Amino acid sequence: MLFSRFKNHLPTPEEALEGRPERAFAVPDRHTVLGNPLLGPYPDGLEIADFGLGCFWGAERKFWQTEGVWTTLVGYQGGHTPNPTYEEVCSGHTGHTEAVRVVYDPAVVPYTSLLKLFWESHDPTQGFRQGNDVGTQYRSAIYTHSPAQQHSAEASRDAYRPVLHNAGHTDITTEILPATGRPFYPAEGYHQQYLDKNPAGYCGIGGTGVSCPIGVARADG
């Protein structure tokens, strides 16, 4: 991983790299495990959820293994630089976090179940790091696609916070923000379904071992 003075400091829009009007690389058409399109179009009735929980290689696998998930892809979100590259994100000069986009059928897996998986699959109290991975690109984040998602995400955080405190953990640092105005930029092809292509590859995913209360809020969209 590449580090800089920005590994513990989010750049302002003025400090961020300029980026580019279009992606500098191609993205594969289909998911290597699920077989469905990565970039769409997606069937009617499916919904989108965006999560950042550390290195996106292991995080993506958690979601593609979940029943009701139609496709997943990894990318960069929450920063300032348009169409960044992996090296730029890892430099800390774009402000993005490594994110997983989950396209799912809410009739099979409700958003609250995805939230439970999110909270329990990483440590949301670590700020600009996740385990031994240090930098703003590893921060915990939820980017919501509706008021209902926003409400459910905030309610799940508020329910999980005292449980973590009782287990000896510090406060949750997860940012929960609308996806509007925070575009998801797909990552390079070799990152997509990385652990399917490289079964023995690095997986930094790991939770606190503390169960998150489920069913604390409804998610209608």
UniProtKB/TrEMBL annotation:
InterPro entries in alphabetical order: Met_Sox_Rdtase_MsrA_dom, Met_Sox_Rdtase_MsrA_sf, MsrA_MetSO_reductase
Reaction it catalyzes: L-methionyl-[protein] + [thioredoxin]-disulfide + H2O = L-methionyl-(S)-S-oxide-[protein] + [thioredoxin]-dithiol; [thioredoxin]-disulfide + L-methionine + H2O = L-methionine (S)-S-oxide + [thioredoxin]-dithiol
Keyword Mitochondrion found: no
MF (Gene Ontology): peptide-methionine (S)-S-oxide reductase activity
The enzyme's E.C. designation: 1.8.4.11
Pfam families in the cross-refs: PMSR
Principal EC category: oxidoreductase
Keyword Lipoprotein: no
Top-level taxon in the UniProt lineage: Bacteria
Active-site residues (renumbered): 55
Key words, A-Z: Oxidoreductase
Homology family: Belongs to the MsrA Met sulfoxide reductase family.
Protein name per Swiss-Prot or TrEMBL: Peptide methionine sulfoxide reductase MsrA
Species of origin: Streptomyces nigrescens
Gene name tied to this protein: msrA
